[in-house]
């Protein structure tokens, strides 16, 4: 199979990326430039978690928002992942990535700070919260696509697994501690002022990103100018034309479809059938983040022990078999049931994070730098695009056949993600394959 992209040929890109990562030491713990970037990304992740809780609570507690209005706030937060991700990918491939991350965090700081300021002036309306949620979500897309595309030029191919492990670890910590921190801040200073403090955290992140001194290469200029649609198509094409990337994207979409179905139905099952309190449900789901943290620590070790492809397959087996323990548990909230729920969500988190670390590293190592932004955006469009479909599927099946029965069906569907990888060359990989050779495409017809 021929892997096709656009822009300059592969060797030009490899040469261009060397100066950025050449000075990196043997371990990233001793690389001050990565540590600056890592700390800035970690602060941004915590800030995003605080915003996720504080923004809708501002609508509830300050504006007395209805359920439907809170739903609109949450929908506005996630809509950009489907609306603008592919366009952002084109943008990220045409400019340097670190300035985009800095710009995104400055914008998020201003937006989340504007909400409490409007509240103090008694000018805050629910429409302002909708707009803030939509724009913050858009800037989150910009930051996320940029940092995944920036990492290879910062640390080099040899440190991708270590770098992604550290980034996934801080993401897991943010998911564990972010909502709790948001709750403490809201209880201490109320929801609007928690957003103001959160705005300051984004500015601290900006300072750490500004402190990175390793030179980021200029983006490889296109030999012929292409339009937006062609550029987006090239990002999708590089995924489709590669058996490795295509399998990874498909398994990710299937996995996320099943995960959202599981999460949607489990909340109803735990509350209505088992009588578990909302706080208890939150704690059970939170064990997945704890598992994710453990998985981020074990990912590098697993790859060294059994190789890249088998590490991906083993991690997927772990997180795709674990959901079966949830409907198999006794239909009560006894000790055995709770223990099985904790084990299941913990294993889902650990396996999912290990698979994610290796797959992200595989994507980054295979893709030419001039296509990284569009590849990451196209991949995220496929994998995140199935989340609302999973929620609809779980809700529909829950009404049709029952909640526990739907959990059994969903647990079985998880195995489709494993089958996709087994039918692909991914699981046979010992190490990262060669970088895809990008071939130039013709300009748009006039």
Uncertain runs are 1-23, 442-446
CATH architecture of the largest domain: Up-down Bundle
What is the CATH domain class of the largest domain? Answer: Mainly Alpha
Euclidean distance between termini CA atoms: 31 Å
The secondary structure category is mainly alpha
Helix content: over 70%
The CATH homologous superfamily of the largest domain is called: MFS general substrate transporter like domains
For the record, the count of structural domains works out to 2
Q: Radius of gyration, rounded?
A: 22 Å
The total of beta strands comes to 0
- What is the N-to-C succession of helices and strands? HHHHHHHHHHHHHHHHHHH
Query: How would you sum up the major sheet?
Result: none
The fold-level CATH name of the largest domain is Growth Hormone, Chain: A
Number of separate helices: 19
Shape: globular
Bin the strand percentage. Answer: under 5%
**Mean pLDDT metric:** 82
Architecture overview:
- By secondary structure, this protein is mainly α.
- The chain has two domains: 7-219, Up-down Bundle (Growth Hormone, Chain: A), CATH 1.20.1250; 227-435, Up-down Bundle (Growth Hormone, Chain: A), CATH 1.20.1250.
- The chain contains 19 helices and no strands.
- Helix 12 crosses helix 15.
- It is globular.
List keywords for this structure.
446 residues, mainly alpha, Growth Hormone, Chain: A, 2 domains, 78% helix, globular, disordered N terminus
Summarize this structure briefly.
The protein has helices at 10-21, 32-63, 67-78, 80-83, 85-94, 97-120, 126-155, 160-189, 191-210, 228-241, 243-273, 278-306, 308-321, 325-328, 335-366, 369-385, 387-401, 403-413, 415-422.
